[in-house]
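Posting for a labmate who doesn't have an account.
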Amino acid sequence: MSNKPALAYNDAEKGTLDVRSPQLTDLAKDEKKAADIEVFAVQSLKKDAPVTPSNVAKPPPAPAKPAKKKTPLWVLWVIWYNSYRRFFTVVFIVNFIGIGFAIAGKWPYAAKYPGALVVGNLNVAVLVRNEIFGRCLYLFVNTFFAKWTPLWFRLGCTSTLQHLGGIHSGCAISGVAWIVLMVVHQFKQKYLFNDSILAFGVITTVMLFVTICAGLPWVRNTHHNVFERNHRFFGWTSLGMTWIYTIVTNAYDTADGKFDHIGRYVVQQQAFWYTVGMSTFIVLPWICTRHAKVDIELPSPKVAVLRFERGMQQGLLARISRSAVKEYHAFGIISEGTHAKYHYLICGVQGDFTKSLVNDPPRRIWTRELKFAGVSNTSTLYKRGIRICTGTGLGAALSTCIQSPYWYLIWIGSDQEKTFGPTISGLIHRHVGPERLLLWDSKVRGGRPPTMKILKEVYDYWQAEVVFITSNYVGNFEIQHGCKEAGIPAFGTLWDFVSDSLEIRC
């Protein structure tokens, strides 16, 4: 390795690097150890303000915006038909081929065990959304495949883990399709079934259907509280109805028209154990729910910085709520490492929940102690990477750059130090060296940056393998499509539906 010094901070900030293929210094030698954070007084923040290096030149104004060019159709298609939709397609097609064979009478198993196909699909749908299962998958991949495997394989691992929701959606819809087929079949032969079985079949189907409707992208992204309440409470009702429907269906003997199948027979059925598994996966995360102590710093009217005790590994997200069982909101976790005293959440003030954190800061808040892994958790798979974010998207990005010297941080925002306060600024200045940091203040520089120009230069300079993006819908769209067109591997925030007037929180 060459002993050339790292590029100066003000050079990196300009976004125009004169060196084409620099030999990078050995960053491992200069890796910083995370320091314990001093307890700060929420009402007195100036004493913790970071010292800005005096040799950092004031950034030049932003260059004129280039003319907007159209994204090629192949790029639009490749990004739209991502692994999420591919997973959904495979699961959906396989199940509906099975339903076709069942309707045609060509699949005896489906005729004999329709309940197992219903609950089996629902079981998988719940499993892939379970925090424990997700953390185990991320741990397995990060432990056994980090850095040494081919880049295409590691990119595939990240894509798979990020898009498991396609399996969740596909199995949930397929499960409802199977129960509709099962109930229709029972009504066709209603002389064989007790009225209570038919009634519970209809109620369970309706509950599951409402649960799915509440989880549709349009509802989830435009009416978050409606999604949270209905998807959760109708989901729990569906679980209860599934238990009743499974038991009465298997306990009933169509031969003599009585509920004379004993408990042992019911327990031996596949549907019973699928329902046990589904119930376990749903209940486990709620066992870890706690009413945790929280300190809230309000550096500006736009942002609340929440501080919780104990450190965290990078790439995790936290769900928090003012209620034990109502709406939970997910935010990226900022931490110096598992050894640290605290971890932080950046909550941009946009909706009713985040506004309440500013107007009426709580001393305790409900959270799940078991955090779930986000796409950033796979950053350990890569030798070098870039984390680009805008505004409050820093919350999901900063831990990766704090805990690894091989990740470059690009943060685009407006008046960041004043808006986000000394705690967040201090974490950046203490742990992310100027050789791997580019802060673009659109207020100082006079507008938005030439994002793709900067990103391409940093990608070459840093010799990165991948780019992770956390931005709003417009920013994510532009960067992800630009990266695809430039041949840069990139992963961004998932967006299923956005109306013209909607701007979704990172």
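Reply:
Got it, the structure tokens are right above this. The longest strand covers residues 303-309.
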